[in-house]
Amino acid sequence: MDMNEKIPEIFAQQIFSEDVMRARLPKDVYKSLLHTIATGEEIDAGIADVVAGAMKDWAIERGATHFTHWFQPLTGVTAEKHDAFLSPVGHGKAIMEFSGKELIKGEPDASSFPSGGLRATFEARGYTAWDPASYAFVKDGSLYIPTAFCSYTGEALDSKTPLLRSMDAVSSAALRIVRLFGDTTTERITSTVGAEQEYFLIEESDFKARRDLFYCGRTLFGAPAVKGQELDDHYFGVLPPRVSEYMKELDRELWRLGISAKTKHNEAAPAQHELAPIYCTTNIAVDQNLLTMEYMRKLAPKYGMACLLAEKPFSGINGSGKHNNWSLATDTGKNLLKPGKKPAENKQFLLFLAATVKAVDEYQDLLRISAATAGNDCRLGGGEAPPSVISIFLGDELDMIVDSICCGSEYLKQDTKYMSLGVPSVPKVRQDTTDRNRTSPFAFTGNKFEFRMVGSSQNISLANTVLNTAVANSLTEFLEVLEGAEDFEAALDGLLRETFRRHRRILFSGNSYSKEWEAEAKERGLSNFKTSPEAYAHFTDEKNVALFTRFGVMTETEMKSRREIFFESYRKIKNIEARTMLEMTVRDYIPAVSRYVGELSASISARRGAVASADVSCESDIVEKLSALLAKTYTAYGELQRVENNAVKKATDEEAAFYYKDSVIPKMEALRRTVDAMEVLTAREAWPVPTYGDITFRI
Ligand code: ADP
Ligand code: MG
Fold first, then answer.
1. Do 309 and 340 fall into the same domain?
2. Containing domain of residue 116, as a range?
3. Max CA pair span of the chain
4. Whole-model pTM above 0.90?
């Protein structure tokens, strides 16, 4: 790492950015491409060859020999297949070639990607299509072209396609809304996202020493360490030197790719950290978040560490999430969720606010599903992360404004308050009109909403696809009332009042982690899907199919396939976890404890042999307890094996997923309890794997 590099010089060095396009493309081609990027309209096929040629030359200068269509199949991770630019021209010679056709379209074999029954294996063909709105980039000797991925029959098999469609949907609807407020210059409205990413860094040797970590990304066993996060001394604490070096390199690598990594700090749990980028257009933010996760994982071994992105790597301490900050912005740079100085009078803002409140209330189930994974189930509702009930926190000032709108009373603006710390040299600070609420799953944070439910390892596409589409739906319904209204002001006021009144139940400012809220939410009729399978079951509910098909974001077939894939991946993850537990139990824990009990027993005999009256009560007691626990462990092992075998036999993924939730997980928990009980009684050196204390405090 060259620390003398100037950041502005290396920033975006590896991406085929607008600046590069301007410098390298003929003017008309550049303009046409820019138009496509700005409007989302179809690319002019005639310019593709020119763009491809320029991209290739630029990439080769950066060491690229290959290109790849980079896509997001429904595995949750990205996929790539590399082709060399190389093209033999006879006589033992070759040139480097890259055509417009190769840029625009790829034909990977789709048969090994999840399709949820969309595609029989004999229909193996799939297509990737260039997303010009997300910059191509060079890394590891290849030119990466962000693409959408679909089946031979044209159904989306990826996360990007529905997201792009949802961005169009919200843009069209929002554009018509701003026109009603007299905006004639905006041409496109984009949803913007900044994804704060939490992660853990642990010693690589610890990672390799535990099969639960390297197969499942999280621990499936482990007694709590003596010290957890109770002293709150890790949060915002001094960065350990090795972590700091790692973060510096991570920042630089991301900057090169044009990802504006901005904030980094230690998070609440020991060994936990966070990185936040500056927000950008949603599809780019998604791509960038995927690259950020990739680099987090990839760089860690260079520093002798492993990066864990699982939602709950360790029980008993906080897990990791992703705060999906979301807003809408015009191409003229205006944030539509910015309240301004007088929010009560800013009707356009209030309308977008109302649209979001309505969207979140009406499609709470879809939002919940967008954050539902086997991994995130271990975190949500854990008293550290949002509960499984969706609600919105608006903050004091907006709460009062909404109250006054609902009651038809006048809103009296609070005076700006300044806080003095009683130290004259410390400047007075202006108090925000609202405090933060860390427990809300969906919080308004000044000029954007923060959806905090998404899991740390997830692709954030679905969450944003749901948000964009649901808000597009609210706006479209508003347009039916507002466009053509005789008295616009009156129609607008009536609409705001009616919308806030109808959807007020989703607003909640109290402690979302509390039991009382769960009960109250039930009374309010809010949905509460505690586990992923329960949530998935609702994905294709009539109203949800109606929403996505109305805006052409997903067809019913695409939704059904996704529903299948949700269950399928849940089943597979739980199956791997159960088998990992079984394997670790008989091959790691039982042999180790049995050996240790043998040693203690030998020591008892030896001591008794040497001194007949020796007090061996300590060893005897431990031998007795561990022997009982060994037997209990073996019984729990047998139980887990039995239910796991049943799970494998379930005919459908949906059935299996529910069976895992209801019958297998309880047996996994029971097995864990007895193994963890053995851990605290077994000599440190006899324990076969690194413990929680070792892992979370070593770096
Ligand atoms: P907070 O203190 O509320 O967490 P920050 O300013 O630290 O707010 O921002 C958190 C994240 O939200 C960052 O990634 C930031 O870029 C992003 N963000 C800020 N404004 C917007 C916006 N208008 N749309 C989307 N994300 C935004
Ligand atoms: Mg935040």
1. yes
2. 7-157
3. 104
4. yes
